[in-house]
Amino acid sequence: MRASHSANAPASVSAPDNPRSFDHLAEEHDFVATLERTPAFFLANLPPQRRRVLDVGCGTGLLAHELSRHFAAVVAIDISEPMLAIARAKRSAPNIEYRREDANHLALHQEFDFIVSHSAFHHLDNIPETLRVLKSALQPGGRLALVDNAARFPMIPRHSGILIANALVKLPLDLLRHDRPAVWRLFRFRTSRPWLDHVKGDTILSRARFREVYGRCLPGASFVPLNHFMGVVWQAPASRE
Fold it and tell me: CA 225 to CA 207: how far, in whole Å?
């Protein structure tokens, strides 16, 4: 996960005392993501060629590990070393390479058949520039599939009271899905000071604005609303002009 969030602000330093950093949230975030993340959107959009895939903002490796079952090689990048340490310890595979790299300043020397990202792009400094770099790293006919936060309605200020209320609203559904210890741990994470400080600064695009920003960069892309997220899929031309 990228530490910085503003579309124009300079990059933040990934450090334990930086609320934008995932370094101090790694263990608990891995627990939550393991319960709540699903690779279904990405598996439904796998490209025909499956040699090499890039996972941008791989976090603790949940998606990278799943994709390692479908591709010959996986490159998974993240700026948080504690997140990568969990990925290497829990979700290593012979065909996965985990790298510490900043998605705002990518140095890609390979081409990929598939490029994916889940919940990382709202942390980027310059979404259009990162998309430009990723598009140039796709093989002809390759595919880009991204999922990121998108608000159904215009965003209101995300102060702690609203965030805690949202956590309370989620409790009944969590009790239907998970056992009580897991639900309690989820609630404690969602209402913890480090997480509240982290998400209060997030800049979340509305669905309309999301389509506008990504559609301008990825002409012809398809968009799929996914609850509090938006999925986008873009196919590179079959040949380079």
Answer: 8
